[in-house]
Amino acid sequence: MTTEATPTPGTGARRTPLSPARRRGSATARGRLPLTVLAIIASLISVFPVLWMVTSAFKTRDTVTDGRLIPQKFTFDNFVYVFSEVPFARYLWNSFFISAVITIVALLFHSMAAYALARLRFPGRETAFMLIFSTLLITAPVVLIPLFLVARQLHLLDSYAGLIIPAIFNAFGIFLLRQFYLSFPRALEEAAIMDGCGHWRVYWNIVLPMSRPILSALTVFFFLANWNAFVWPLVATTDPDLTVVQLGISSFQQQYGSNWNYVLAAATVAALPMLALFFAFQRQIVESIKTSGIK
Amino acid sequence: MTTSTTTRAVAVPRPAAKGRRRRLSRKHREWVAAGLFLAPDAIGLLIFVALPMVLSILLSFYQVSGFGSYTWVGLGNYERMMHDPLFWDSMRITGIYVLVLVPVLFCVSLGLGLLIKQRLPGLAAYRTALFLPYVISLVVVGQLWKFMLDDQTGLVNRTLRAAGFEGRSWLGDPDLALGSVIAVTVWVMMGYYMIIFLAGLQDIPKEYYEAARIDGAGPWTSFRRITWPLLRPTSFFVLLMSTVAALTGGLDLVFVLTNGGPANGTSLAIFYIYQQAFGFGEFGYAAAMGSFLVLIMVAFSALIFALTRGGRFDHDD
C-alpha cells in the first residue's frame, strides 16, 4: 500500500524543474480533489454498512437500534447466545469442510482438464473445448430443479457428497486455467517428454508446480464462493447435522427476526472468515477476477 | 538350425515393428492421456450440468405429482404458463430488474473503474473498500440491509428523518421494494465489475492518452475516442455476464430481503419458479417456465453478441 502511494509525490517532485509540466501537475492536483472526495464517498457507501453490522453485533438488545456506530455498552453476550442456542460451531465446520473439499477436488480436476485442452494434441480438442465452454451459459438456478431430481435419483440428498459433488463441476475454472496454460513455454514439457516422462508426470511434476500462482488465486476464490453458497444447500439438505452456515443464519433470522443483536452477531460470525480471507489474500482474489475478464 | 532361423526370423523384424508401434503409440498415448485428463470434469459436467439441462426440457412435458410419478402432458405446462398471470407478472418484474440493474451496474462499475484508475492518493484503500461487499454472502448482505432499511429503526430512514425528509418503507412498499433489491445488488456487485473494468482499462497503452493530450484532447474526447472503443471486449464481457446473472439470479437476495413480497412486487421469475417447484411440488410446470427462461437468456446473449459484435475491435467503421 505504501509503495503504491509514494510514487505520486515522487514524480511530482521530479517534474518541478519543467515549468509546463508543473503547471499541468498542479492542474491535475486541483482536478483531483473532487475525484478524491468522490472516491471517499463511494468507499464509505461500500464499507459503512458492513462496519455498522459488526459494531451492532456488540450492542445489547435495548441499544441495537439506537442509531450509534460505537456501542455504548460493549457486550459479547450475543455471540455467546448464538453459539449456545444453535449448533453454530457445527454449521461453521460443515461449511469449512464442504468448501475445502470442493476447492481441492475442483482445482485438481479443472487443472487436469485445462492442461489437456491447452497442451495435449488429440482429435476433437476444439469441439471438446466449445462443449465445455458452452456449459457456462447454463447457470445454477436454471438447472436447480432437474439437478435436485438427479441428486435424488443418485441418493445424494442429505449427505456431504450431495453438497460437495454437484458443486465441483464448473466450466469457469477450466476456462481460466486453460487460458493460463496456453501461455506456458512449450520447451519444458517437450524436454521432459523426450526424457521419457509420461504425461501424468509432466503434469504433476512440471505443470502443477508452475501453476501455483493461479491455483492459489483460484483456491481463495473457490473457497469464498462455496462458503457463501446458499440455494443448493437449502434444496439438497434437511438434516440439521448437515446445515451449512448460510442456511444456519437464514433460519436463525426466521426464528429470532426481531432480535437484531442476535441476528447480526450470527451474520457477523458467518461473514468474518471471508472478511479475514479477503484481507489476507486480497491480491489473489483481485488477480483471479482480473484474469477472468481478459480473453 | 530351424530354431536359429526362427529366432532370426523373429529377431529381424522386431526393431522395425517396435519402432512403428512406438511412433503410433506415442501419438495414441497422448490421446489416451488427454481422455483421462478430461474424464473427471467431462463426466461431472455431463451428469451435473448438461444432463439436468436436457432433463429440464424433458421434464417440462410432464406433470410430476407427489414424489416421483410422471404423467405426459405434452405442451400442457406451456399452455398453463401462457395463461398464468402470476408468471407473466414475474416476467415483467424480471424485465424491469434486468433493464434497470444491468445498465446501472455497468455505469457505476465503469465509473468506479475510471475513478480508481486516476491513481489518487490512497488508491489501494479505495479499491479494498469498494470490493469488500462482494466477499460477503448474499444471505448476510440481505440481513444487513434488512437491518439498515428497517422502517422505524433502520439507519437509512433515521438519516432521512434527521435531514428533514420522510422515511419510506423501502422493503414494505410494493413500488419501492424492487428498487431496493436492485440497489442492494448494485452495492454488492459493483466492486467485482469495477475490478474487471480496471483490468481492461490498464490494458490500454498510456501512450494513446499522452498523444491525445498533446493533440489537445480533453478528458471527454479521450474517453470517447480511446477508452470506449478499446474497452469494447471488457464491456462486452461485463454486459454478457451481468445480463445472464440478472436474468436467472437474485434468488438468494430476494429470499432473505423480501421473500418475493410485498404483494409479489419482488417475485422475480426465478423466484416464482423456485416456489412452484419446492413450495408446491410442481416440478414439471417449474421446468417448463425454467426452459422458457433459458430460451430468453440465449436470445439475450445472442442479441448482446450481435450488438457489440462479440466485443471485437472494429476498425471498419
Automatic annotation (TrEMBL), chain A:
It is a multi-pass membrane protein. InterPro entries: MetI-like, MetI-like_sf. Residues 92-281 form the ABC transmembrane type-1 domain. Keywords: Cell membrane, Membrane, Transmembrane, Transmembrane helix, Transport. GO terms for biological process: transmembrane transport. Its main location: membrane. Residues 1-17 have a biased composition (Low complexity). The chain crosses the membrane at residues 33-54, 91-117, 129-151, 163-181, 202-225, 260-281. Residues 1-27 are annotated as: Disordered. It holds the Pfam family BPD_transp_1. It is found in: Cell membrane. GO terms for cellular component: plasma membrane. Belongs to the binding-protein-dependent transport system permease family. This is Carbohydrate ABC transporter permease. It comes from Streptomyces hoynatensis. The lineage of its organism: Bacteria, Bacillati, Actinomycetota, Actinomycetes, Kitasatosporales.
Automatic annotation (TrEMBL), chain B:
Keywords: Cell membrane, Membrane, Transmembrane, Transmembrane helix, Transport. The chain crosses the membrane at residues 31-62, 96-116, 128-145, 176-199, 234-257, 283-307. InterPro entries: ABC_transporter_permease, MetI-like, MetI-like_sf. It comes from the Bacteria. Its main location: membrane. GO terms for cellular component: plasma membrane. The keyword Transmembrane helix applies. Pfam families: BPD_transp_1. It is a multi-pass membrane protein. CDD domains: TM_PBP2. It is found in: Cell membrane. PROSITE patterns: ABC_TM1. PANTHER family: ABC TRANSPORTER PERMEASE PROTEIN (PTHR30193), DIACETYLCHITOBIOSE UPTAKE SYSTEM PERMEASE PROTEIN NGCF (PTHR30193:SF41). This is Sugar ABC transporter permease. It comes from Streptomyces hoynatensis.
